[in-house]
Structure formats: C-alpha cells, structure tokens
Amino acid sequence: MIHILYGDITKFEGDVIVNAANRSLLGGGGVDGAIHYAAGPQLLEECKTLGGCDPGDAKITKGYNLKAKYIIHTVGPIWRGGKSGEEDILESCYRRCLELARQYGLQSIAFPNISTGAYGFPQDKAAKIAIDTVKKDLQKNGELEVYFYCFDPNNYQIYSDLLT
Length: 164
Ligand code: AR6
Fold this sequence. Notes:
Shape: globular
Low-confidence stretches: none
Distance between the termini: 13 Å
Mean pLDDT: 98
CATH superfamily: Leucine Aminopeptidase, subunit E, domain 1
Number of strands: 6
Number of domains: 1
Number of helices: 5
Radius of gyration: 14 Å
Strand content: 15-25%
Order of helices and strands: EEHHEEHEHEH
Bound molecules: ligand AR6
Largest sheet: 6 strands, mixed
CATH class: Alpha Beta
C-alpha cells in the first residue's frame, strides 16, 4: 500500500523513516537537519561509525528519540542537468532503502522527497521515479506500507496527481 502524507517526517510513528542525507552522513540542513535535531545527539555518534555513504546507497541506524524505530540514511544525486546518471541514482536510493527495510523485517517506511530540495532534482521527475520504483518493488518483493511525506505543497500536489 502506498500513502501520501503532508508534513514533517520526524513525526512518523511507523517502523522506519528515510533521511535524505549527504555522503558524510554527519548531518546537514533540510530534512537531514530536522531528523538529527528530533532524534538527538546519539544519532550523530552512530553516524560517525558508518564511514559515509555513496550516492544511491543507504545505511541504517537506530531512531533514538524518534517514534520510528530506525532511520535509513540514503544519499540522493545532486541534479546536474540530467545527463550524469541522476535518474538511476535516485531509483537506486529507493530500491536500497526498501531492501534494507525488508532485511530488518520492517513493515512501514516513510520517505521524504529525496533530492528535491538542496540537491535540485526536478520535483515532477523525482516523484515519478519514486512512485514507479516503489510500485515495482512491492509487486516483486511483497507488500509494505510505504508513506511519501511531502513537506511542500507543490510536491504534495504532484504525488496526489500521480497516485489518484
Ligand atoms: N519532513 C519531511 N520533508 C522535509 C522536511 C521534514 N521535516 N524538511 C524538508 N523536507 P532536502 P536533498 C523536504 O534539501 O534535496 C541536506 O543538507 C524538502 O521540502 O532536505 O536530498 C543534506 O545534508 C524537500 O522536498 O534534501 C544534503 O546535503 C525534501 O525534503 C542535502 O540537504 C528534500 O530536501 C540533500 O538534499
């Protein structure tokens, strides 16, 4: 099942939230900053042990002060015009996050709109990739509850149009 929600992903009460991080995994602005703030300083201590993360890959930590039990940190592509493999990297982010969630036996996962803020990925293209990749995964590997958390009205509108 795929759901769309409007608002702050740090409030999610399911199993795992996804963080749109950078390669260092040591925090930043946007949703990354909000997640580190809400989870508390122990999150940074665990992230320091992970050795960073490549774009398109993902790593999991505990959720600490969040209601969600875990956080999956993924690194989206920086948009450079679309000819540098950005679409494949973004697809890989969604696939790897779902793969990790399944490995950990998790049943509900919340995604932010990866790469569509500071990293400048066009929102309509990103939404299509996110939805297509998740749908394919659910068909192939079995059902999970997937929540797309939209924080800005434009993304919310795009997801609503694509999913209804
Ligand atoms: N809950 C849900 N979505 C949010 C929240 C929130 N609390 N805050 C922002 N968003 P961005 P990126 C949305 O810039 O483009 C960081 O500094 C936001 O409206 O957070 O992948 C990292 O450290 C947008 O739609 O992530 C990296 O350096 C979406 O989250 C870099 O930004 C993604 O915006 C990653 O850039």
